[in-house]
Design brief:
With about 350 residues, the protein is of the alpha/beta class. The chain has two domains: about 140 residues, Glycogen Phosphorylase B (Rossmann fold, 3-Layer(aba) Sandwich), CATH 3.40.50; about 180 residues, Rossmann fold (3-Layer(aba) Sandwich), CATH 3.40.50. It has 15 helices and twelve strands. Strands 3-2-1-4-5-6 form a six-stranded parallel sheet, sandwiched between helices. A six-stranded parallel sheet has the order 9-8-7-10-11-12, with helices on both faces. Helix 2 runs parallel beside helix 6 and helix 3 packs across helix 4. The longest helix has 14 residues. The radius of gyration is 21 Å and the shape is globular. The termini are far apart.
Length: about 350
Amino acid sequence: MFNRQKQKRILVVRTDRVGDVCYITPALRELRRTFPNSYIATLTQPHTSNLIKNNPNVDAIIVDDLAKDKFWYVVRELRKHKFTHALLMQPTKRAAYQLFFAGIPYRVGIGRILYEVITFMRSVSRNKFVPLRHEADYCMDMARKIGVKTDSLELEIFLSDEERKEAKDFFAKRDVSETDLKVFFHFGSLGSAPHWNEEKYLSLVQKFCSAFADKPYKVILTAREMSPEFRLKTAQLLNPRIHDISNEIGDLRDMIKIISYADLFFAPSTGPLHIADALNIKCVGLFCHRYASRPQIHGVLNNRSINLEVSEEYCNKNCSADKEKCAIQTGLNEEDVLEAFQKLLLIK
């Protein structure tokens, strides 16, 4: 029988985007390490729950599709688990009220937002982001609030052996072998972060193919948001080693399985980049110097990767003061990416 004093029952809540949900995985690990006998669950959107699947640190995955008519359904579901603690990793009015009505006694939020005050929520402060830290570290502050002591921030996603075999078979059918240098390019961010235009991405592909012509490479394109014009231009390169698989990827779990097969991964700051980070893939991330987009907050964390950032000097000279005009198009170039790839190939 459940004993509220002897066992912590912890709910970790993050109902926003893919990369943001990746950021809670270090906290899940450290909560399990600190409280090995606890019951740990997550509350995410249905599609981002795929990031938590197979995670050995999680006992239950609860989902909320954010539909208006599902509010009380989620509250009733939360009540069934008899949680003692809830960590709201991102200020979310809907979730704050759900946790309150679910009767969870110890609830932690960020700052002192009105709906958090009304629901008597405890809080941690981000101190106006001074000093600037990674979002995964800010998430960890929630776990620290209830007793976790750690600076371990490595993201992690777990695949089953069967899923790894499925990825291998997927690529084998497309003449991509384990011995090939498999370089993934995810061009686009669905507006979540500044990135290059397609003309520059096409130039990157061309320069990569030229620079790595003596290697057994395969270029894998994964972004569904690539335009028909861009797809046509890559096809017109007539390079059989370029594979556009973007329309062959199903749900987010398919994307995870496919990315797991990469040797090198390039993307602007976007969900797939953080998935690759969590899979410990060698990544090159593209970042502007805009405050909310910097690698100090959203960069790749694994030590096999490189975050490329527009310099402060270049940004101050070429970007608008409000950063609505961003110089990322010219502040970094294709050669920066190729040089980073060469460095990463020296890392085992």
